[in-house]
């Protein structure tokens, strides 16, 4: 059993997520949007929660996902990938009415991205707290939540149930705020704040740390969040690596690996899943952070958000063969 503020060990039960399972289809050449016929590549299995949980499984961690796909090929390739990698998909329902969600992405020359999403009116928008979802939540040892998924109507109820269930069993939670400042408002603001307060592990990237804390300075933001009860914060800094802030006030920086970025999508989820799984296995924070940096960096070298996910053997080879900044 974990204490409040601590990440529960593997023995408490699998790590679970809930949210969108999508296919991603990407333009092969950078440019602006989709206003003329283009060469496209895909479908690739995708969706932030799916990327996260697949990486947990690749590292040998217990893993399960609550989601919904259509009864179509896009749903099949996702289910096959998740199953192949060892994710429990018993709580993924198959809609006979809605198609699997999708995201078309094209990289801009300046590094930005243009998207055309179909989520709300797809199977992903139909996710509900089904009996299978309850069953999975009721045996889980850790719940990971992403701020971006809370816009799916059924997610709020699932998350509320799962947080309680996991806590009741002595499990832990992590939260990736993954949402812009403008969106942390109104009725949803209450659940967002509660998830932050409740998080044993917070995984913001870049300015999300400041937006989540509501202050303009990194040190103040960390102090404010710790005062709210957050157990530890691991900040993702893209190519610059990452930093872990612990409740005892200590700070640990990890330089980024030097890689050629082919496709940045999924790095944050792959990183977070790796850090979490290493910690749940009982690894020291420094080693977990190092593996997480390696996993995030390796993931951006492959086209397709889940194509660069990797187990420990592949990560060890990557680490041995790749230089780091500084
Ligand atoms: P996403 O773009 O998927 O939303 P994110 O913004 O949450 O991700 P990033 O900071 O982009 O997260 O990436 C997560 C981690 O992956 C970084 O902290 C770093 O360790 C690694 N990483 C990402 N991009 C690169 C890169 N270009 N070079 C080296 N490492 C990288
Ligand atoms: Mg990023």
Task: Give the helix/strand layout.
Blueprint (H helix, E strand, L loop, with lengths): L14 E4 L3 E6 L12 E7 L1 H11 L4 E8 L2 H13 L6 E4 L5 E7 L5 E6 L12 H9 L2 E5 L8 H14 L3 E5 L9 H13 L2 E2 L5 H6 L4 H10 L4 E5 L5 E5 L4 E4 L12 H14 L4 H15 L12 H10 L5
Parallel strand pairs: 1-4, 1-8, 2-6, 4-5, 8-9, 9-10, 10-11
Antiparallel strand pairs: 2-3, 6-7, 11-12, 12-13
Helix pairs in contact: 1-2, 1-8, 3-4, 8-9, 9-10
Bound molecules: adenosine-5'-triphosphate and magnesium ion (MG).
The site of adenosine-5'-triphosphate has 22 residues, from helix 8 and helix 9.
As a whole number of angstroms, the C-alpha radius of gyration is 18 Å
List bound small molecules. Answer: adenosine-5'-triphosphate, magnesium ion
Mean residue pLDDT? 94
Q: How would you classify the helix and strand content by structural class?
A: alpha/beta
The global form is globular
Q: Please count the beta strands (DSSP E, at least 2 residues each).
A: 13
Largest beta sheet, briefly? Answer: 9 strands, mixed
Q: Would you identify the regions where 5 or more consecutive residues have pLDDT less than 50?
A: none
Strand content: 15-25%
Output the strand order for the largest sheet: 5-4-1-8-9-10-11-12-13
Q: What is the N-to-C succession of helices and strands? A: EEEHEHEEEHEHEHEHHEEEHHH
What is the count of helical runs?
10
What is the distance, rounded to the nearest whole angstrom, between the alpha carbons of the first and last residues?
39 Å
